[in-house]
Design goal:
heterotrimer, A mainly alpha (about 280), B mainly alpha (about 270), C alpha/beta (about 250), A: about 280 residues, mainly alpha, 2 domains, elongated, C: alpha/beta, 3-stranded antiparallel beta sheet, 9 strands
């Protein structure tokens, strides 16, 4: 009798975990079922849970110690220096001295694929918890592509992200970036066109600073691809449109100047030939 | 008939009482639930496909160690808190105390039994943990891991003594609640008590400082962060200091328990 | 050293609530005597026994067990106790239970094994040796209690309601054991409601009423004239007051 009573919650837990593990990115399909299951379990708390998991990824990146830098290094290759905090923090009491030795302080960044992959489960969990957490997809895409050197997995992840967030242009842009790293300009162009369409459909496309930045970057990428395809005029038009939108303008200015110069040269060559 | 037997006799009586407590725990089968639950939670998590990347182990270590600590707190407190109240409630204390056994020997025997029973579970959990961690990443028992296990046992001894002492003066449910609260809160916030006291109002500051000075600092025994993230081992003098701290505090709780039980009218 | 097995002198116990449970009980039980301790419910019999065993501290007066303070382990080494409500560790087998108690009493392994078998045979539980206590009937638990009290061959035995829960065969077995203990020179102090049993077995009886001994004397003083004299004495001392109280309440 006792065994039967014990078996029921255990069975339920196993089934629940199995169900949960089945509906995860990187495994099988079932996005809508996942929404229903987790939505029923957590309601709107899933967003908070998902953000918590992204925090956890950041914490893991810093060796388990908080350092106050809000996820910045998760998105880019720039890192702040490892801290050399004294082990006991200049302890004044026995408790502080002992705590300083027991609990690590200062932080160390994960370096090398062998250790950097430890961040992955929390990104996986963040996406599993809330398929509408766009940041989680972006972080995941970055880590899979740049740190884990698994761009194919990144593309699969972003495909799921696009499927679950069909109006978010950042995911298409991220997909384009991965395609560009794989030198697949055709796929990149398709993704960038989707990104552009979604960006232009946004009501706050020109008002929200982040939205402007994203739009600017999409236009820049389109310009680069146009340049590669030999369509200098198109490239120049893209750069011209992008310039007021993005923050860091120098590179775009250089690219615009280069394309405008190329256009002028072509035009004057054309005139010379006619002449 | 054997006499009281001096120190040897005392050790034999303490061991006899402890052994019977351990037997109770293993025959009641409560802790097997914890083991099965732990396995049921951890094994599926270990086999999840994370974008086809192999050898990821830290998340598993974190979840496993969290479960080990949770189970150790639950098992440790519930085992210790039940020892003497169950004797009183079931009235088995009367035939026991009618024997040539001192009340302090009963308290010590109960402590030994509760600690060894909970400690056996803990050892089993850690064996599973080392196995899982080793299979996933090839790293088996490191120095840091060894220190973590040692300090966790010290934590368990202190927790057992605290719950046992509480069981003599408090009701069962009050003891369970208070012991759990102290253990969890000190693990989570013990390190930050002085900072919190500095920023609090006068009354709250006094209370927080009193807790800081009086409550056992369980966070001294928590090396999870080091084990999970592969930090260096703790210096030997810090381990020695934590051991001495645990020994002193455990002894204090046991002495208090002796005195309370000695005065208890049955 | 005193020749008395049990010496209770002006024993007073007042509980924390202010209730005076014992108001100066004085008793002496010489070695080798079987003493019956009788009284109605609430008279203070169990409190006296608890003080005798060191479970509670007297408010005033002294208690001695073979000349020693009963709160010391040395005194209790000579004592065997059967509690009124026999409760033992239900997750143990009866032989494990007795082995545990034997180790507490300091019995060595070889001796302990033979003593366990002997007492189980004495109380008629040899066939139930491998059974868990929780599977015992009430009568079997009572007999297991008797076994643990006799295990270490104590000089003084304190039985609180030893016949409780036993069928007539079980009661006869306990009676025979108590007679045998007397023949061996043991001191038996037992409380009971079974007046006929007390009259049959005891050398002396004491009757407790409202925390005081109101009668104490040898059973030979109660001449056996077939009129149930102990019961008569008991009711005269205890029963009249209770029945008049009942009549007043009914009126």
């Amino acid at each position: 009798m006792k065994s039967a009573i014990l078996a029921i919650p255990l069975l339920a837990t196993t089934v629940g975990i199995g169900q949960f593990a089945h509906h995860v990115p990187g495994l099988n399909g079932g996005g809508c079922e996942q929404d229903d299951l987790l939505g029923q379990l957590f309601g709107s708390g899933r967003k908070a849970l998902s953000h918590r998991f992204v925090d956890r990824a950041d914490l893991y990146f810093h060796g388990g110690v908080h350092d106050g830098h809000q996820h910045e290094e998760l998105f880019c290759d720039e890192e702040h220096d490892d801290d050399d905090a004294p082990l006991d923090g200049g302890a004044k009491s026995f408790w502080a001295w002992l705590n300083g030795h027991i609990h690590p302080s200062g932080n160390a960044h994960l370096k090398g694929e062998r250790y950097e992959k430890e961040v992955i489960p929390w990104i996986w969990a963040a996406i599993a918890a809330d398929p509408h957490n766009v940041d989680a997809y972006l972080v995941g895409s970055y880590w899979l592509t740049r740190r884990m050197h698994k761009p194919e997995e990144a593309l699969k992840l972003l495909a799921r992200g696009v499927e679950n967030n069909s109006d978010v242009c950042e995911l298409d842009m991220a997909r384009a970036e991965v395609c560009l790293s794989l030198k697949d300009d055709g796929a990149a162009l398709d993704s960038l066109r989707d990104a552009e369409a979604k960006w232009r459909a946004r009501p706050d496309a020109m008002d929200d600073p982040r939205s402007r930045e994203v739009g600017g970057r999409v236009l820049v990428y389109l310009g680069i691809l146009a340049e590669r395809a030999g369509d200098t005029a198109q490239a120049a038009a893209r750069y011209r449109e992008a310039l007021p939108l993005i923050r860091v303008k120098e590179r775009v200015k250089r690219r615009l100047a280069h394309t405008e110069n190329a256009l002028r040269t072509r035009t004057s060559d054309g005139l010379s030939e006619q002449g | 008939m054997g006499g009281n037997g001096g120190m040897n006799g005392e050790m034999r009586r303490i061991w006899a009482i402890g052994r019977v407590s351990m037997l109770e725990l293993f025959r009641r089968k409560d802790m097997y639930v914890a083991v099965i639950l732990g396995v049921v939670i951890v094994v599926p998590l270990a086999s999840v496909n994370l974008f086809g990347i192999e050898g990821i182990v830290r998340y598993l270590r974190e979840i496993s160690l969290l479960l080990i600590w949770l189970f150790s707190i639950v098992i440790g407190i519930s085992t210790a808190a039940r020892q003497i109240p169950a004797e009183l409630e079931r009235r088995t204390i009367y035939p026991l105390l009618a024997k040539p056994v001192a009340r302090r020997e009963v308290v010590l025997g109960k402590f030994v039994g509760a600690f060894l029973a909970s400690g056996t579970c803990l050892l089993f959990f850690y064996l599973l943990f080392v196995l899982l961690s080793g299979m996933k990443q090839g790293a088996w028992m490191t120095v840091c891991m060894f220190q973590a296990v040692l300090l966790h046992f010290l934590f368990l001894a202190l927790l057992t003594a605290m719950a046992l002492c509480g069981s003599i003066v408090l009701t069962h449910s009050a003891n369970l609640a208070l012991s759990s609260l102290v253990a969890v809160c000190m693990l989570l916030f013990g390190q930050r008590l002085p900072d919190l006291a500095d920023r609090a109002t006068l009354a709250a500051s006094i209370l927080l400082r009193a807790i800081h000075w009086l409550a056992p600092h369980f966070e001294f025994f928590d090396l999870r962060l080091r084990v999970i993230h592969g930090w260096d081992p703790v210096p030997a003098q810090a381990v020695a200091a934590a051991t001495a701290y645990a020994a002193v505090y455990t002894a204090l709780f046991l002495v208090l328990a002796f005195n309370l039980f000695r005065r208890k009218q049955l | 050293m005193s020749t008395a097995a049990i010496e209770i002198s002006d024993l007073r116990v007042t509980y924390g609530t202010g209730q005076e449970a014992l108001r100066g009980v004085t008793l002496t039980v010489p070695k080798g005597e079987v003493f019956g301790f009788l009284g109605p419910n609430g008279a203070g019999k169990t409190t006296t026994i608890k003080a005798l065993l060191g479970f509670i501290s007297p408010t005033a007066g002294t208690v001695r067990l073979c000349g020693l303070d009963p709160r010391t382990p040395d005194a209790r080494a000579r004592l065997g106790y059967l509690p009124e409500v026999a409760r033992y560790y239900d997750y143990l087998r009866v032989d494990e239970l007795l082995t545990f108690y034997g180790e507490i009493c300091g019995l060595r392994r070889q001796e302990l094994r033979s003593r366990v078998d002997a007492v189980l045979g004495l109380v008629g539980l040899s066939s139930a040796k491998g059974k868990l206590i929780r599977d015992f009937s009430k009568g079997m638990q009572q007999r297991a209690g008797l076994a643990q009290a006799l295990l270490h061959d104590p000089d003084v035995l304190v039985f609180d309601e030893p016949m409780s829960g036993l069928d007539p065969l079980g009661r006869r077995r306990v009676r025979d054991i108590m007679v045998r203990l007397r023949e061996e020179g043991k001191t038996v102090f037992f409380s009971s409601h079974e007046l006929s049993e007390a009259e049959m077995i005891c050398d002396r009886v004491g009757i407790l009423k409202c925390g005081e001994v109101c009668w104490c004397g040898p059973t030979t003083e109660i001449a056996g004239d077939g009129k149930g004299n102990l019961e008569r004495i008991f009711l005269e001392l205890i029963g009249d007051e209770e029945s008049s109280t009942w009549e007043a309440t009914a009126a």
